[in-house]
Amino acid sequence: MSSNGHPKTLFEKIWNQHVVVNEPGNPAVIYIDLHLIHEVTSPQAFTGLREKGLKVRRPDKTIATMDHGIPTTPPDIPIEDVMVIRQISQLEKNCAEFGIPLYGLNSPNRGIVHVIGPENGLTQPGMTIVCGDSHTSTHGAFGTLAFGIGTSEVEHVLATQTLLQVKPKTFAVRVDGTLAPGVSAKDIILNLISRIGIGGGTGHVFEYMGSAIRGLSMEERMTICNMSIEGGARAGMVAPDDTTFEYIAGRKHAPKGADWDAAVAEWRQLPTDDGAVFDKEIVINANELEPMITYGTNPGMGMKISDAIPDPATVKDVSERQTLDKALKYMDLQPGQPLLGHKVDVVFLGSCTNSRISDLRLAAGLLKGRKVAGNVRMMVVPGSQQVKQQAEAEGLDQIFKAAGAEWREAGCSMCIAMNGDQLAPGQYAVSTSNRNFEGRQGKGGRTFLASPLTAAATAITGQITDVRTLLG
Amino acid sequence: MEKFTTLSATMVAIPTENIDTDQIIPARFLKVTDKAGLGDNLFFDWRYNADGSPKADFVLNTEQGKKAKILVGGDNFGCGSSREHAPWAIMGYGFKAVISTSFADIFRNNSLKLGLLPIVVDKDTHLQLMSLIEEEPDTQVTIDLEAQTLQLPDGRKVSFPIDNFSKTCILNGVDQLGYLQSHAAAVESFEARHPARVNTLAAG
Ligand code: SF4
Q1: Least enclosed by CB within 10 Å: which of A76, A82, A104, B202?
Q2: For residue range B74-104, what is the model confidence (pLDDT) as tens digits?
Q3: Do the Cβ atoms of B33 and A44 come within 8 Å?
Q4: Where in chain B is the domain with CATH 3.20.19.10?
Q5: Quick one: which atom of ligand 1 is closest to the CA of B27?
Q6: Is the ipTM here above 0.90?
Q7: Chain A / chain B CB contacts < 8 angstroms
Q8: How is domain B6-173 classified at the architecture level of CATH?
């Protein structure tokens, strides 16, 4: 609210509500409402606690799961990788010793950390949320300040429930208009990043606003906030509204009864005040957007799916030119070449960007009654065991299997290729995940980032395809 | 954390822009439960051939690389994931500072917490460093953290920014956790007036 002084942004309101101490010349000490933990970035933090003889200050505001290294093969197949086994048992031991609730290997609530927070009602507007994972920005879709931290900071939060933070700047991303059929949230965020570059949001927090954003479901908003980090921003946010409240209502950890009414009344105060000023702003016209795809080795190297690959010779800046040159070499692509019709070996539908039930519904809708092309391996990896169950209840698994796609257990899987799900050297993949860095999906593998619809269309034809040509 | 006051050392360059954390330390090396040995896997996929032998021409495999204490990278260094394994690996290899024209936020944050100095310089200085490294690889530069300067062999001193808090911690080799712990009372009174928004222990 603007009761004391100037109009404020959503970010400023949440920031102000969480500053515990702010000594001049030092970063602020901010309070953390929810701390999410997974097996890969936490072991060294617990070691730190033990060495210093410290306890976890608020296990009741902490929750753990396992996602990064977990196999997505059927649960009765034993895990082979001894290092993964060690990380899993470390996490189990750490959670037991420090009293932290864990959605463990066989929990029906296990899943990618950024999928399970929202689906269990843990992610609520106005909160500060951190996790040792850069895609914590996902939770900003609920009007939270949520960002990734390193393992030293994981230890700080475990020990004190606070973090030292330099106040970031604000960056308004206004998306007005209506998306055409075949164009989705993923295309909005890939478009933004292709415009501002992967360092464009450094030092800033995005607030996504405008009629196109208001029209999106919570899951679509999560897709957009998820990739804020790919635009260089640590966090991205959407102001909470009725769409947000409807999503949260009735979930496991959501407030109930009178608490719910009080919470909603509070949450309604959060949206940015009229006249609040942002440090930066960009406007995107949703009406003009088309399906997007990346061609290079960072998420900023994206284009409309019907465009041709840019020519490094036309890039003025020397180091930018070299970067593009190097990327095209790695991808084995030629300047001026179109990507439509380019053969792929793998289609990956999954990751914290696009593995929620609505993503699976979109892809299944297109695959229904069709087949995955013979040259393509399609993997469908639900974001959580709850998503998996829901999809199975709706019969989506049957559609995927009938089409010839693999239906897997929940996890990060081929998004990060730690669990054995990976590309072979030289293979091309269309992936609904968020990073196309060299080797990200397997050493020597080549990734095209795109939406679930583009992924499904490509799986059907075996080559990069504009989904609009397959829509009835 | 080790103290860092001044450092005179040679440099090596990996001039690529947008060096992401997946290149610095590929994800398959994140299955460790401690911090030891990560330096051996620094830039693994750029550094080793498919058969595991070192690529002779990759800078980290050269004598210059082995003795350098300062890494000069391209713009937007350290973008990508929040893995602290990235600065752990860089420090594990033996670097004490990284110089670039800009750093990704989380990487910079993580480095400052560990005492690996992320030094931002302007484009011209960056170019000058690159050509120095190419033409006279044994050139030393001097970092003075107290004065916040990088001194080039021609005597020119370039200032670099760092927040006072991190600077004091690194100069004294003090972990930032102590500062947070010193505010325990303030945290308690904050909690007393702050709504408990969620209880992960509550059965729902
Ligand atoms: S799905 Fe990918 S981006 Fe998301 S948390 Fe897992 S590894 Fe990270």
Answers
A1: A76
A2: 999 999 999 999 999 999 999 999 999 999 9
A3: yes
A4: 6-173
A5: 7
A6: yes
A7: 211
A8: Alpha-Beta Barrel (3.20)
pLDDT of residue A2: 44
The sheet that has A34-37: what strands, in order across it?
A: A102-103, A62-65, A34-37, A128-131, A145-148
Nearest-Å Rg of the Cα atoms of chain B is: 19
User: Is the backbone of residue B80 left (phi > 0), alpha (psi -120 to 50) or beta?
Assistant: left
CB contact under 8 A, A153 and B109: yes
Continuous segment of H or E residues that includes residue A130: strand A128-131
Point out the ligand 1 atom lying closest to the alpha carbon of residue A353: 4
Q: Is the pLDDT of residue A472 over 90?
A: no
Q: Does A160 touch chain B (CB under 8 A)?
A: yes
End-to-end CA distance of chain A: 47
Cα(A247)–Cα(B203) distance, rounded to whole angstroms? 20
Across-strand partners of B97? Answer: B70, B117
Count of residues in chain A? 472
Q: Tell me if A158 sits within 8 A of A45, measured CB to CB.
A: yes
- Residues of A whose CB is below 8 A from B15: 319, 322
A40 Cβ under 8 Å from any chain B Cβ: yes
Query: Which tens digit of pLDDT belongs to each residue from A226-268?
Result: 999 999 999 999 999 999 999 999 999 999 999 999 999 999 9
Token readout for A85 is 């086994």
Of B23, B82, B204, the CB nearest to A149: B82
The answer to whether the predicted template modeling score (pTM) of the entire model surpasses 0.95 is yes
